[in-house]
Fold this sequence. Notes:
about 350 residues; alpha/beta; Quinone Oxidoreductase, Chain A, domain 1; Rossmann fold; seven-stranded mixed β-sheet
Amino acid sequence: MNAPSSRPTTSLTSREVRLAAVPRGLPQPADFTVEEVEVPRPAGQVLVRNQAFLVFGGLRTLLGGAAKDTPVPGLAPGDVLFGPTVGEVVSAGEGSEFAAGDVVSHLLGWREYALVPEAGCAAVDPALPDPVAQLASGSAAYGALTRVTGVREGDVVLVTGAAGGVGSLAGQIARLLGAARVIGTTGSPGKAGRLVDELGYDAALTAGSWRDAQGAQAQRDFAAQLAQAAPDGIDVLLDNVGGPQLAAAVKAARQGARFALIGALSGQLAAEGTGGSAPVEIDVFRLILKGVTLRGYLGAEHPGVEEEWAKQFGAWLRAGEIRYPLTRFTGIDRAPHALKELTEGRQFGTVVVELPPRG
């Protein structure tokens, strides 16, 4: 066991992002404040200087006041935001397994310094060539594709919301697992081009975007594009969106198709509402006739996936077999703007805020 760090742990101040008001619609920078606070003296916790944290769309649900039965609690005005983070240990208590200088991950992001219970810290896997890769959202895609749907040689795989943090890795994972054809969806032609040119998608669909339209017409537009890209139907769906795209995917299902639902962006990032629901009408008769399995994916139900993913992701990165699209914002003051950019669909891949040391 390591001795406690001799680094100073007093007279530290930290800036942190707090919710100022429940957003009306998609969150705006004015809904947040960046406050400077004194860091309390550690009392058995690990003191971590955060280096980077993940900006993720699920925050919309937690901010909107409609969070119910979610794995983590909702946020009220005055609360500090949180999320996956990597940082360097400043000090740890006597007998701790951590020491000053260790790089760890935890969930107390959106602040420069965090006091984290030791049980809430994990050493960043050395298999990853860059600690920021710890913030990749690929474990959900990897878990869904290996535990829920499986991917068989020759499968046609559809990934909705393919330009986000999960989707930008999901199509590549499906290919590495043996898929014959991978199709993605996104909201803009520019992103569609990047999915094909940079990430190896065979086709990228933009019609029927849930950001621009809902209902029957959006479903018809999307179904027409999907029929052209997959004339014989799809075997696997990794769904980040829901809405008309899920409804159209049901109609395109091959016999025995396997669907995994890992996101609901049609509700979470809708301009109206609170992001707490994502209703959609699907053809149950089609599900029955085609023997389609449809299941939601929760990482907590699949222990071991995170560790397995980290090792596999590291190996793929080192071998150059997978790309990790990353958008970086620098400085905690930029964090509310980064969230706005993400929820409005203006970024590609994983979005992180990096926190350089203050001079």
